Amino acid sequence: MKMPTSFRSLLVLSVLVLGACRSAPATLSLEMPENRPLHAQGESMVLQAKALDAKGEPVENPKLRWVSSAPEVATVEDGVVVARRSGRATIAAASGKARASVEVQVSIPSQVDIRVDGADFLLAGNSIAISATVKNELGKPLVDVPPQWSSSDESVARVENGRLVGVAPGRATITATVPPLSRNLQVQVVRSDFARVEVDPTHLVFAKVGQMLQLRAKTFNNRGVVINEVPITWFSSDWSVATVSSTGQVTAVGPGRTVVTATAGRRKAAAEVVFEVKTANR
Fold it and tell me: N or C terminus: which one in the chain shows less Cβ crowding within 10 Å?
């Protein structure tokens, strides 16, 4: 028997309506693959959407509408979130009356600083604390971005468990890397038996402004033997009287007295030198 056209149309419409009702999600949820910030511009993650009907059954391939509350921070298309700049964005999906959202954090490193005290004079066999501070372009520290440490010469110095270790005398460059950024630190490792420093001469008198004289520093081990390649830092207590270069050359500036000190590391093995500076017309 041939079915009337009007009846067939009504039946098809009923099937379509019922099918639509079965496929329309009643609830929707979003899951992030990892609960962590995005740390690079252009880095992406794929959000997983889980849609259930009114009976709690999964809805296959639901048609979702995606939107980002801050597209300048992170964009979204078909569930793929792409980082643009540091900040927070709410990523939302909707299908029918069902809604779901997650917050995405973007923290892009823009600055790396190394924190250490005494790397320019590290005794072989000793170690000191070292750390790296990473900040995003907003100046906020990033605590979940550990740096990768490397050394230009691990036979001289290396980083282990947050410590800068002096292995043997020499120079090395320690690098903290947080892709695509890196920061270098020059390290000087000296002999572990270094004991003291002496300056010669211990007294200088200048006759005129601009006159230059040379100081020389010697370093000794704990047996009184001269040792080399120990870095010396020079200071003048009054730069208006006399200046001192990094090599110990002293230049008269004005009348008065000053103390020039040669220091080797943190050891209290410094030598003081007193200068009497006189101008030519006095």
Answer: N
